Amino acid sequence: ARDAIMKIVSELEERVSDTVEIDSRVHARLIGQRGKNIRKIMDKFGVDIKFTGGETGNTVTIEGNEENVEDCKDHLIELADEYMDAILEKLEFQAEMSQYTRPDPR
Q: How much of the chain, in percent, has pLDDT values that exceed 70?
C-alpha cells in the first residue's frame, strides 16, 4: 500500500500546468457535443484540460506530466488552426456569395 501511495505522490509532484491561447470561436468545436472530443483528447494524452477564458476569453489550461502537456498543447494548436481555417473559409465564402444576392427590400 505504501508503494502505491508513493507512486501517486510522485505522479502528483510531476504534474505541471501550462496555458495556450486558442481563439474562443473554435472552443465549441474542440469540446465537441457533450464534451466528446475533449474527453478523447484528455484520455489520449493523460491530461486535464480546462477552458478558463482568462482576460481574452481564449485561454486554455492543460495539466498533467510535462511531456504529455507539451504533446497535447501541440495537438490542440494544430486542431485549432485547422478549425480556424475552416471558419475563415466559410466566412470568405459567405462574403463572396452575398455580393450575388439582392439585399432584403425591407
A: 94
